Every structure is written in C-alpha cells, then in structure tokens.
Task: structure prediction
Amino acid sequence: MSVHKEIKRITTHTLQEFKEEGIKISMLTAYDFSMAGIIDSAGIDVILVGDSASNVMAGHETTLPITLDQMIYHGSSVVRGVSRALVVVDLPFGYYQGNSRVALDSAIRIMKECGAHAVKVEGGSEICESVQRILSAGIPVMGHLGLTPQSIYKFGTYTVRAKEEAEAKKLMEDALLLEKTGCFAIVLEKIPAKLATLVSKKLHIPTIGIGAGGGTDGQVLVSHDMLGITKEFKPRFLRRYLNLADEIQNAVKQYVDDVKSNNFPNKEEQY
Ligand code: KIV
Result:
C-alpha cells in the first residue's frame, strides 16, 4: 500500500514530488470500472489504461488493432471508478504517429470523452512533434521508451531492448528529449537495469519501469499478469501476487456442481 494514502488526489506534480523525496511510484493497468475501483482503493498512485487492453481484454496477439473509440470506452469506464489515482490513457497505434494534428485531436478526445488526466505515447525523436503539439493544448504526456509494443513488427521479438551501445545511446537521447519537450514521466520497458538506473539518475522527471530493474523511480505491471489472470505469460520480470485464474475456475466449478446437484439456490436464496 502507498505510504502516501492520505493524499486526496495524485497529480503529475505529486509524482514529481515523489521523485524529489525518493518515494517510489506505484502504477498498474486497469481497463474497467470495477477493477479500477478496487485498485484505486488499495492506494495505487497511477492507473494506466494501457493499450494492453488489446491483448488481455480483446484477445489480440499485439496492441496494434485496438482503436481510439475502444480506448475511450475503457478509459471512461476506469475514470468512473477512480477517486484518488492519476489516470493515464494510452494513445493507440495509428492515432498520433506521423501527423501532429491527428495526435492532438486524439489526445483531446481522450481527455474530453474519458475525463482522463494524461495520455501516454510510445517513442522518442520520431514522435516529438506530436508530443509538443499535445502539450501545447495543456494535456500532460507520459513517454514510453525501450520495448515499445506498438513497434513489435519493427523489433521482431519481445526480447530486452537497448543491450547494444548504439541503441542505449539513442534511448538516453530520447529520454532527455522527451523531458526537454515537457513530458511529466517516462515508462522504461524491458531494458537493462543498469541503463534504466542511469536514465533515472540523469532525468529530473520520474521514470517508471517494467522489466527495467529497481533503479527506476516507480514500477508498473499489467494487472492481469500480476493477479494471475493471464497464466501463460511468464517473463522473468513478472511477480505474481495471486493466482486469480485458478481461484475463479475453482469458484465456477463449485457453482456448476451446485446448480447440477440442485444445491443452489437453497431456501434462503429464494423469494
Ligand atoms: O499498455 C500497457 O499496459 C503498457 C504497460 C506495459 C506499460 O504500456
């Protein structure tokens, strides 16, 4: 549970204060009202409405198919369930790259139609113009570097990024550029812990790691993975806190048995 549970509402400024005070930032994904409410009431600092919804909610192999309308549906459901955490919504693939006007329109729709507090985008120098334009409308932007799943067909695999010097150098330059442009935080995904620590020390804004070691200013996991709803996904960086898939399966088996054996409903469970 967060040591700062007494804070009424987490803002981008709170996260900056956390970094300055050496308080780690906790972040998890959520995609619906009920789960968002549970996660929020447990004291999480940031809820990310990740485009990982494409995988864990819709069953797609990658994050590429999810649309802006679908992200807005998930985002608005989450916002209705949250009273304390900062809610960040991913801009999906195809709605911000290459055209900063499109990026601005997408970000405005996310803010207006979800009631979200910030957007997240993947990439560095390539999307800098889009980041600038979104920021110019007063919309806070979170960056995302390292393994950026929207570029999976460029990378070819989900293995650790920036192990070689040239890619590590580019990542550091991109992180500094995103900070200079005005991002309030940056997610660092699946990069060597040493590099993530170095980036975190160089930047004034917070870094939030996933598979990037303990030297970042915060940590993020996909809630379905850490709760054990997804069972097949077992990367080294993932810590499972529950085996919810087994728990749900056992409860459903019990229900099926009870219905079949006429054990449910009983006299107290009817009118
Ligand atoms: O979409 C997502 O869930 C993410 C996290 C893995 C950081 O971007």
